[in-house]
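Handout, page 2. Input:
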Amino acid sequence: MTQPDRAQQQIARLIEVMARLRDPRTGCPWDRAQDFATIAPYTIEEAYEVADAIARQDWSGLPDELGDLLFQVVYYARMGEEQQRFDFADIAAAITDKMIRRHPHVFADAELRDVATQSSAWEQQKITERAARRQIGTLAGIPLGLPALTRADKLARRAARVGFDWPDAEAVLDKLAEEVGELRAELPEADPARLADEMGDILFVVVNLARKLDLDPEACLRAANQKFARRFQGVEDILARQGKTPTDVPLAEMEAAWAEVKRTEQKKP
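Output:
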């Protein structure tokens, strides 16, 4: 059996499994009870699990995580079919047509000079598509459900395309210092709403700093989270060898263990 034939067979099998799970008489009670809104959070979770497997380079586990994500698409397709709105074929056709439309240098006669030209053409095509959906405006079409850092990055990139931007990273750093000063000024009053507003400004500027440095803020924070978790686990391991836990020792002792973990990491090749 060829690879395309095997893929088609397994997709058809998955669609059939989903149909049986949603069968009104013999299906799974939990699966039958779900709708678009209740499944959406699982889709986000599964996408993060895919990203996590890639970050950990868990290549043997990645197909399983991708399967979970594909199952979400099949789930939506089944619910759409039940409501006579769309089915799996409509979903596949929509993305196939979109990719062909957005790659005229591959599927038509357009010429591609370089990556920058392709990116510009891609963005222009997306603008045309948004206009066709009546999504008018520079910031139209950026999903509200994105992680906040990712959405901030997309908002800033869109605004930058029309010239609303800082000239360089140094200018963003100056703005960051300004925003930190504004937060500091709110500390005596400690009004939660004002503090939240100023903290939001700081985070938004930090996202723009990452953009100016050609960094993905979501990836940066994800890596920082992993580093913190790894190092704190190291602190707990050091204390455990002494028969202690973090709750047993003062902050100074935990900080000393933290410094030891960092020194050990820096010695590694």
